[in-house]
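Supplementary Methods, section 5.1.

A reviewer requested that the exact input to the structure prediction be made available. We therefore reproduce it here, unchanged from the version used in the analyses.
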Amino acid sequence: MPETASPAGASASQEAEITAALGKRSVVLVGMMGAGKSTIGRRLAARLRLTFLDADSEIELAHAGMTIPEIFAAYGEPYFRDGEARVIARLLDNGPGVMATGGGAFMREETRNRIDDKAVSIWLKADADIIMRRVKRRADRPLLQTADPAATVGRLLEEREPVYQSANLMIWSRDVPHEKIVDECIEALHAWLCGTAPPAQGTPDKMGATQ
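The structure derived from this sequence is encoded token-by-token as follows.
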């Protein structure tokens, strides 16, 4: 199980120590669509003074600007997953950085092993109601183009969460200010990399949203 954190607040010294401890490794955010990987990843990268990389954006660039739904429609999911694995491998070889991955990327064993070798992984865990609230108005989620998107989210959570649990760390993605989630990521990374006291076990705060 990944460790969780509920910190009082992260510091600039922690950020510098994390970057030094990472060396050539990256930080990779995994989790479901709508968990906030790109939004939190950009802010975390800025705090750690590292490059932010969005795997989905890199895949679109590699396909001459085709969107993810267009790639799915034109070539199918297996083709997309193969390309996704290659892109993530290339980005990890160019570390360090902070990378947001697509929701299904971590399901491939080859990719998990590469992330484990070249990065510290953080699972942004979001409940089904949070995910649906964030994605229901968007048409760029090819896996949700179904008659019952809520049922699809439930099925994907059931399939994927046991795999996401193999990430190094887990942070609850919930309705709180973005910087609170970033602080929690930094506290957890510092504890993991720098040998400080283990993070306190946390539970999701239902009060507000990281998107």
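The longest strand covers residues 119-125. These observations are discussed further in the main text.
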